[in-house]
């Protein structure tokens, strides 16, 4: 799911993110309802080989998907 932030509601969205996750930075990535973090966290998961597994377990990609 992607949430688009329109002009003028960015402060409200950042406040909501801070309340839900303790972080107000964007992007703020969730996989299977779990907060993963921002871009750096997603890149770390990718580089360590864990991102594809998380996405497959969440049903976001096929279990037999090629390593990205």
From TrEMBL:
Coiled coil: none annotated. GO terms for biological process: cellular response to oxidative stress. GO terms for cellular component: cytoplasm. GO terms for molecular function: glutathione disulfide oxidoreductase activity. It comes from the Eukaryota. PANTHER family: GLUTAREDOXIN 2, GLUTAREDOXIN-C1. This is Glutaredoxin.
């Amino acid at each position: 799911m992607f949430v688009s932030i329109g002009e003028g509601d960015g402060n409200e969205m950042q406040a909501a993110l801070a309340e839900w996750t303790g972080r107000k930075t964007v992007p703020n990535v969730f996989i299977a309802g779990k907060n993963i973090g921002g871009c750096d966290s997603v890149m770390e998961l990718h580089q360590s080989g864990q991102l594809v597994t998380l996405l497959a377990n969440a049903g976001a990609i096929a279990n037999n998907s090629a390593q990205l």
